[in-house]
Amino acid sequence: MEDIKIYRGKVNNKVVVIGGGTGLSTMLRGLKKLPIDITAIVAVSDDGGGSGMIRSDLGILPPGDIRNCILALSNAEPTMTELLRYRFQDGNLKGQSFGNLFLAAMNGISMSFSQAVLKMCKILSVNGQVLPVTEEDVNLKGIFNDQSSIIGESKISEYIKKTGKKLDHVELIPENPKALDDALEEIRKAKMIILGPGSLYTSIIPNLLVNGISEAIRKSSAKKVYIANVMTQQGETEGYTLSDHISALHKHSFEDIIEYCLVNNRKGEEIYLEKYRLEGAEPVIIDDDKFTDSNIKFIKKDFLNEGGNYLRHDPRKLADVIYELLTEN
Prior knowledge:
Elements: E1 14-19, H1 21-31, E2 37-42, H2 49-58, H3 64-73, H4 78-85, H5 98-108, H6 113-123, E3 129-132, E4 139-144, E5 149-151, H7 153-163, E6 167-173, H8 181-189, E7 192-195, H9 200-208, H10 213-219, E8 223-227, H11 242-252, E9 260-264, H12 270-278, E10 297-301, H13 315-327
Parallel strand pairs: 1-2, 1-7, 2-3, 7-8, 8-9, 9-10
Antiparallel strand pairs: 4-5, 4-6
Helix pairs in contact: 1-3, 1-13, 5-6, 8-10, 9-11
């Protein structure tokens, strides 16, 4: 990421980003170059992969998405970063990330999970802070168009792939878990609140269902930004247009949660698009004409990364536009 612009000067503004998954950590690598105060508020309903294993074995919150955000904002030595990204190749720990184990160990010597995250941030010289949205043990419940349901974030996608049913909405179990006080305070102090990018139903929306989060965003005078996904996601948002994504956010929170929407308008190379089609994914269709009566301002630009095997946001391009929005009068 050496080509990311390094911004000069002081901008005394706090930016709060809300989400989870790969999309959020990708964006944070660009934002940490800005002269701003960054707080990442991260969903904790993941129950799959290495995070799910640790959650089940040790009874702690899933560490994976939080670990990725910490590493994205870290200024630690390259060897330390490489170590925390290392995944074991053999034995009972095969596939497990050392960073997950590190955070689990931190939790063991801390008063709370959020304190463990804070300590890890200090050790890795994080530019900003990372917070779990809640410290309660929550699970995600998917409710489908025929009113059937399934519990478990990792099970929702597989259920959709198996049955072909459409997801109507999601809920947290238990309902209305208490938000982390620090997360609410950071939202109250924010000059800009960013949702996404990331999986709509499993990375972004779970945060909005935590008691107090949506209301804090509603009351905030900050600029509210949604970064739309580049591609639809198999087992979650097949066939979704941009308006479908926004409508889902409204359904799970409130109508004015988005003030600005950043949308990629460059088509990816066909060689990559074909790979996504084989996985049941397509570029998100931009149908902002459905919001002619809305106050949402759509910023349509080329936000795609260059090279790589996936069509993802370029953190530098996102950072450029976010900085312009943040500093404009």
